[in-house]
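Predict the structure of Polycystin 2 like 1, transient receptor potential cation channel.
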Amino acid sequence: MQKLNNRAESHLSSQVECELENLGKRAWVNQAYCGTPPPVHRSISTVYNPQPLFHSQLDSMGKVSAPNPYPAENSVMNQYHEKKSSGCCSFLLRGIKGLWGTTLTKDTTENRELFVRTTLRELVVYIVFLVDMCLLTYGMTSSTTYYYTKVMTDLFVNAPSDSGVTFQSIGTMDDFWSYAQGPLLDGLYWTSWYNNQSLQTGTHSFIYYENMLLGVPRVRQLKVKNKSCKVHKDFEEEISDCFDVYNEKKEDDSSFGLINGTAWQYHTEKELKGSNHWGMLATYSGGGYYQDLALTKEESAGVLANLNNNLWLDHGTRAVFIDFSTYNANINLFCVIRLVVEFPATGGAIPSYQIRTVKLIRYITTWDYFIIGCEIVFCVFILYYIVEEILELRIHKLSYFKSIWNILDVVIIMLAIVAIVFNVFRTIKVDKLLGNLLKEPSIYADFEFLAFWQTQYNNMNAVNLFFAWIKIFKYISFNKTMTQLSSTLARCATDILGFAIMFFIVFFAYAQLGYLLFGTEVESFSTFHKCIDCRKHRYCGFIYFCSVETNPKLSNMFLAIINDTYSEVKEELASQKDDLQITDLIKQSYSKTFMKLKLKKEKISDVQKVLRSGSKELEFKDFRETLKEMGHADHEISAAFSKFDYDGNQILDKEEQETMKQELEEKRVVELECSLATTMAKIDVVMEKLGLQDAGKTNKKDATGKHLTIRNEVKILFFFTVLFSYTIDILLILCKKLLYPKCLISLLLTF
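Done. Here is the predicted structure for Polycystin 2 like 1, transient receptor potential cation channel.
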């Protein structure tokens, strides 16, 4: 059975819209993109699209057809269907284009409903992508990471030696050797329980009984050349040596001391496969003089004693690095530790450390394999969005980059591609390192490079996830409430830029002033980037403190600019006319769904209820509020009201109300006639079909007569059941339509 394709004319858009209900789309079609034929106007204009009054059990019979009260319109639709079904390839092509249909690939400038629907579809797809991205990001982290880092910090940084020296309290070279031969060795080698019972782990050390020491630790130092700086001529006789602050160009690469052995010979960064380190005083290269320790505590103690006795650290030493890695199989985490002691040209020592707890082996548990599935879905999404952005760039050319949201899309995609490439690289690199370590357990396991980039990878994912959450504003910005934030920031951007210039002028002026006044006395002002807080000088400090108090006033100016702009934007949005919102689409879908289930009353009846109020003048505000409570959309209410508001004063007088009532009644009649004609046609077809089947079986043999009689009885029983159902439906219609004589006359003529 073909449904009637009814249309309504809307005042909200100059473009004619049509709803192809017989296709089951339940959505407005953009004629500019799908070639929808123009509607055929009927003799009776409508307020709302008519809906069937009832459905029966025979609606699913595909061969049953009803008389067509609108042959002209259906002939146009038949031509449209023939054209659409002419080729499967064109249908598939349209489906593929629809898969990447966005507000930038479709012409939505004059079709508000198409814009909202397209944006809503984009939002749903993006939310799925965002959930998948969150699973990936949080799947790489664990709450145990913090505790793993903490116990390692307590053991190697805060544990004191017999003389009370901790790593953080190292101030001289002597303190360094006390720490290295005491707390360092004690923390690295755990081969027995607290009761001196052996751990029975062979030569492997298990720190805290749980964390396996990978390979052997490495101690490395960097030196600068003698005569790398110039001594004033007045002191040349007293001072013969001069070692400058560290600079890679002044790095010493000559052999010294015992000469033989890696500890006394220089190795380049390429030979050590190392990387730069950003310390407290300078950025150090990955080369230098190194010494690998042993698998046992006794051998390592002998190695350190040999270095100490032969003056491995001297005037030229500028930094010492202690590197080692551990692995905890219980939580599948690596802990890569680097302890650094810098020896400045001023003398003394400055300790610092880096402890990176990372997950380098990805796939072990069931959750890890679930993450594999999420990673595959993530790659599919990235491919999907790459194609989408290419299509948008192809349509809009360079104007594509005028939107900040498009630039954000490109940034997210680029960071995601980098993350995918690093994922593959990390997996291959870790497998190679572990393979070499298993073959030679006595070598140094250099996980520093991987740990560094894994940390950067985690940071990059955090930034990418932040941008991904911010991107949600792109899809919800069509809502007036959500537009307030973006509109406020866009409008006050110029004022904020001017304020930022003024703020940074004052900020840098105070930073330089603090550095010059207190840099020699206060640690917080010892460098330019530390000049923020702390005052010590008796007089200048007081003046500096008082003048810095003007900074909160600058912050108040910043907030005042935003507050003022926000008030303007909010006032303008409040005065704007309400456009089609996402809530209207939800209400439409809700109404259509319940109309199918016969759980919602007809729209025409709702309008008639409003008109029965008896008021001589009906204002649009009251008309709108009443119908919105009944579940009607704003654009439908506006279309119905403006159709009969001939003078445009937003008020329906008595005459205009009567005109609306009369048209509604005429529409009721047409609707009832169509429904009755359809019902009677179904009954006629069923009776004819049953009659033909019975006539074809009268020539059967008598031997099967008993079975034919039973079948005929079943068919007759089925026929009367259906007929009874339709009779009940017709009686219900009559009870509702007794006020319309035309309906009774049409019903009698039909019978």
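The longest helix spans residues 654-696.
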